Amino acid sequence: MIKDQAPITDDDRARIAAAIHAAERKTAGDIVCVLMRSSSSYSYAPLLWASFVALVSPWLLVFATQLSVMRILAAQVLIFVCVGLVLMWTPLRTALVPRAVKRTRAHRAGMEQFFARGIAQTKNRMGVMIFVSLAEHYAHVVADDGIAARVDHAVWRETVDALTAQIAQGRIADGFVAAIGRCGDVMAQIAPADGSGHALPDRIYVL
Questions:
Q1: Given this structure, which CATH class describes domain 10-40+98-206?
Q2: Which of 95, 104, 154, 194 has an alpha carbon within 20 to 30 A of 84's alpha carbon?
Q3: Cα-based distances in Å from 62 to 49, 53, 69, 73, 82
Q4: Domain extents for the chain?
């Protein structure tokens, strides 16, 4: 399992930076990579589930035991605290969130990163971001206006498939390198290198 505190190593970062540099030598566009451990803390999920369990538990205790009202109320509080603490464990907390909610949150986080990293301000709007959020098992290639309208969505889908296939095997850096190479080839056909240089740094942002 990939550890949350170190999803990629320094060597991985260097490999990804080198891959970006090599890909951008063929195109006037910019490539940015973003890797997030999670798109949200989902801190509300344990509280919601703990509240639900605590609300249901008194009824079960009334029918299954002979406890007094005071003891049942005390048990209810204890159940709420214990369930809430157990569900604060990150894997469980994330698992409690519906898939659609996680996907929506990851998509929103990706779009926020697209603008935060200045991709929308690149020359001729030729920037592309490769975005991955590990907790949500979400990956997306976001192309700016200068490229998006000229590339079939299936091309980006294939790029994401190549990326996620490697990540599924725990090879995050290999996945990014493969996706970068594919993006570079596509961008080179649309916006070949013109010697003007690139505005954005060759690096992966790990959040």
A1: alpha beta
A2: 104
A3: 21, 15, 9, 11, 20
A4: 10-40+98-206, 44-95
**Tell me: the pLDDT tens digits for 69-123?**
899 899 999 999 999 999 998 888 899 899 999 999 999 999 999 999 999 888 7
Between the CA of residue 81 and those of 46, 53, 72, 92, 94, what are the distances in Å? 10, 11, 14, 16, 19
Residue in this structure with the two tokens 């970062």, named with its chain if needed: 13
From the list 8, 40, 3, 4, the residue with the least C-alpha distance to 203 is 8
* pLDDT value at 63 more than 90: no
Length, in residues, of the chain: 207
Buried b (16+ CB within 10 A) or exposed e, 170-204: eebbbbbbbbbbbbbebbbebbeeeeeebebebeb
Q: Read off the pTM.
A: 0.85
3-state helix, strand and coil shares in percent for the chain, rounded to the nearest 5: 60, 10, 30
Report DSSP state, residue 33. Answer: E
SS3 state at 173: helix
Could you say which DSSP state residue 125 is in? G
**What pLDDT is recorded for position 2?**
35
- What's the confidence (pLDDT) of residue 31? 96
